[in-house]
Write a structure and sequence with these properties.
2 copies of one chain form a homodimer. Chain A is α+β, with helices and mostly antiparallel strands. The first copy, chain A, has helices at 27-34, 51-62, 109-115, 139-142, 152-158, 202-209, 248-265, 286-294; strands at residues 3-8, 46-49, 80-92, 98-106, 132-136, 148-150, 170-176, 182-190, 195-198, 216-221, 227-232, 269-273, 283-285, 303-309, 315-325, 341-345, 356-357, 362-364. In chain A, strands 5-10-11-7-8-9-6 form a 7-stranded mixed beta sheet. The structure holds a DNA duplex.
DNA sequence: GTGTCGGCCGTCTGCCGACAA
DNA sequence: TTGTCGGCAGACGGCCGACAC
């Protein structure tokens, strides 16, 4: 993935706004392309970084698992509490694939203790824009034979109104993509029965973005009365090719060494998060982590729900049962909360869903009130006792609000 | 750069031939695309690896210099003598850009001493194929309006002979690219004056490879009477975009950590060499290194020649004068031979050529016989004495043949 | 010897409503 | 409501020699 323009996050406090040489990606469009489940932590907030999850993303991007022969980084714990200094949204110049660049600074030992005492920094879920639609392209949409058939409700909700006095009603639409490129389309309402179509300009867009049937386009009509245009490619299997800049082994080592060095010196480091390549978010708000790990009771046999994205870019819940709680990789990452929950899924199509999830990804179903709680329910981990409960912090030190 | 097919080197001894799931890239075509100055060390031979040069390649690929805040790797010397276990040629699936993957194993201390005693492993220069031609594409060649105008001598030398009894003489050519894809062209000899043209099939090739005026194509007619077809894109400025898999800092750290770990444990590691992205080769035959460093007398003021590639894929010599000998980066890479020679170039177009080169890249002009020499001339480095002369080896231990 | 052009023909692009799912 | 098709007109692709540098 090669990056073009970039922007700072436009959400959150303590935001670092950078202007000048770099163009700003439209945050709304970025989130729409990333999908409804992707949320970025706020700039200035505290987050938990999982090198293990980062390693999984690199493995997915290089098609190669981390090797067992790697050097050890004893100074690198399985989760690292960090200050999030900067978030920059990017989009691949070739494919429009979105990713986020984050600058993290591991907290010092003293600050880690304080981390549990500060007012909760609530992460807001990525709010999808209201005036938008997303359509999966048909064979006719991508064929050179014709244009793009706009679903009626979508056109009426998202596009500016046509003058229905004209025959046929038509207008020119100008939409901008993630790179702020302008695309012009002729929008016309014709045919028998009547339908909305994009004709002139559509095929140029399809061939420029190399869209094929099965890919999706999304149009947003924002508050500034601008039309935004994004794409989301179908997940085609086996499209990932190894990069030739660095061997995958060196990449894995680099990710670990960079995090370990930053942790040892409390200095900043930079990571890329690829929402549509990574199996899970590996930088999550500290508050979300604490809530899930220390204030939620889970146990084997417990039922839970979890959100997934649908084909139509909306969300639905799948249900399952917790079948176990244990380290995903006891040898390399002991005492890690990353994907520590083994689960079984209710539906038979469960083959597509992970057999292991992290605590903060699921919604346990319980008859008790879950939170806020005056008596926080503590997770009993199945690990041998005597381990430092949380990087040397005693359980009693932990509190929220 | 994303890799597709690959092959083991077809030159050199101790060659590991891998067959089955991986297709073999044609070595002849790979070298033709890489250019006349690129040579790969033999599998099984001993080489010198320069992490500093590797770092330069990564910097060129990520558009970012190595950061000074990196952790130190005291176990990583500026040059590492390695056994070369494997060489695999690759080509980018999107752009056809060539690169080579090498598996290196640092020698143990004992083996390092032996390294200077073994019979010389002479590296052979990359021999360009004899029956080939390379043409830079004109506006007419890449226009949709017509086909490809084949230079007359090239067509007569490289293409199979036409039957000139026909009117006009024509034939179908089938050429294979680096990925072993087949391309068919109609080759015809017509017009007034008569000329060789590729018509039907040419435009498909141009658009598939996304060739533009200024790019080059090369045709090879090999010993097996096969027609091979490669491309070499014009060096367009600012085409390098940062990857989003890993931050450039992490990549730099990864390269250093991987090499340091391999050096400390005498285990294998893997690197990618991108001939057309990297400023210089950073894995060179040990013999070439020893010859240049220990058996060549250079001094400030000395005249030298150095090979460069021309537009037409051939080589020419440029002349210059040595203006200094010193460490390129005394802080991070003290006592490194990497680009230790400061030079001035004779011609005014010297702005394009590096101000620093390595000893083994240049041909010092001297009135003495240079080598072989019964009395090896030793380089007097301007560094403070007392440093280990060569990883703890005494000068007298060194010998060639 | 070869890069670019005008001429010319054929194919494909692309806009239209019909029709059916 | 919308995916695909046949019909049709015009644009562009693509093969040719002319011509000039």
């Amino acid at each position: 993935m090669r990056l073009s323009s970039s922007s700072s996050s436009t959400t959150g406090f303590n935001q670092v706004t950078r202007e000048g040489d770099k163009k700003c990606l439209n945050s709304e469009l970025w989130h729409a392309c990333a999908g409804p489940l992707v949320s970025l932590p706020h700039v200035g907030s505290r987050v938990v970084y999982f090198p293990q999850g980062h390693s999984e993303q690199v493995a997915a991007s290089t098609n190669k698992e981390a090797d067992a022969h790697f050097p050890n980084y004893p100074s690198l714990p399985p989760q690292l509490i960090c200050q999030l200094h900067n978030v920059t949204m990017h989009a691949d110049v070739e494919t429009d694939e979105v990713c986020a660049q984050m600058t993290l600074q591991p907290l010092s030992q003293e600050d880690q203790k304080d981390a549990y005492l500060v007012p909760a920094e609530l992460g807001t879920a990525s709010k999808q824009p209201s005036n938008y639609f997303c359509k999966t392209l048909t064979a006719s949409d991508t064929s050179t034979h014709g244009g793009f058939s706009v679903p009626r409700r979508a056109a009426e909700k998202v596009f500016p109104p046509l003058d229905y006095a004209q025959t046929p009603p038509a207008q020119e639409l100008i939409a901008r993509d993630l790179h702020d490129n302008e695309w012009k389309f002729r929008h016309i309402f014709r045919g028998q029965p009547k339908r909305h179509l994009l004709t002139t300009g559509w095929s140029v867009f399809v061939s420029a973005k190399r869209l094929v049937a099965g890919d999706s386009v999304l149009f947003i009509w924002n508050e500034k009365n601008q039309l935004l245009l994004g794409i989301r490619r179908a997940t085609r299997p086996q499209t990932v090719m190894p990069s030739s800049v660095l061997s995958s082994d060196s990449m894995h080592i680099g990710l670990l060494a960079a995090a370990a060095h930053a942790a040892a010196t409390n200095s900043r480091f930079t990571i890329f998060y690829n929402p549509r390549a990574s199996p899970s978010e590996f930088v999550i708000p500290l508050v979300k982590y604490i809530k899930a790990v220390y204030h939620t009771r889970v146990s084997v046999g417990m039922r839970f729900r979890m959100l997934f994205e649908t084909e139509e870019s909306s969300v639905r819940r799948y249900m399952g049962t917790i079948t176990g709680i244990s380290d995903l990789d006891p040898a390399r990452w002991p005492n890690s909360y990353w994907r520590s929950v083994k689960v079984g899924w209710d539906e038979s199509t469960a083959g597509e869903r992970q057999p292991r999830v992290s605590l903060w990804e699921i919604e346990p179903l319980t008859t008790f009130p879950m939170y806020p709680s005056a008596f926080p329910l503590r997770l009993k981990r199945p690990w041998p006792s005597g381990l430092p409960s949380f990087h040397g912090l005693r359980d009693d030190d932990l509190s929220i609000n």
